[in-house]
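To: structure subgroup
Subject: Chain for Friday's discussion

All,

I'm putting the inputs and outputs inline so they're searchable in the archive.
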Amino acid sequence: MYKVKQTIFILIMHILLLSWSTVYSEDNAEVQKDLSKPSKEHEELAKYAGKWNVEMQFASSQKDEAYSGTSINTMLVENRFLQIQFAASKASEEVSGVFIIGFDRRNLEYQMTGMDTWGTYYVSATGKRLPESNTIKLYGKDNDPNMKKMGFDKEFGYSCTFENENMFVIDVFFIDTRTAARNELKFMEYRFNRAE
């Protein structure tokens, strides 16, 4: 009799577990489907599509040493990512590159990737919109062999300020990992003004 009761109990538990996993899978699939759709954060990014003028300047340089050029910004992957594709020059020196920024609804954070003709690699960072602000601050790490040789990690960040629908700024900064203070050192500013 004990064996029969034990077998019935195990059978009931299996049925309950199978039922629960089916319901969970269906619920989870609906949640995942909803999270895969663009949100208000993506709609905000889409406002910055179009043709732009760009001015780039190293933090250590003078105003007359700025690079000037244009940027074509497009939404990718059915309005999930803003691609900022720029080309600029000063005197005979030219640079071009791409930033891609999106919003990860699973982790509720922005993601940004950058690459340009000053290197053969890309860097990426993640972050949040600052409270009560038009600024998104993102942080990342770069596996830089030169920094590793010196015994330091290379950490950096992007500060993206969407001042209005006709102007936004991307600042690139490095984090001084040599000290406990970890000061943020501005490296480059990209200033975008709508051309259309």
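Points worth raising on Friday:
The CA atoms of residues 5 and 183 lie 67 Å apart.
The chain has two domains: 1-36, 40-194.

D.
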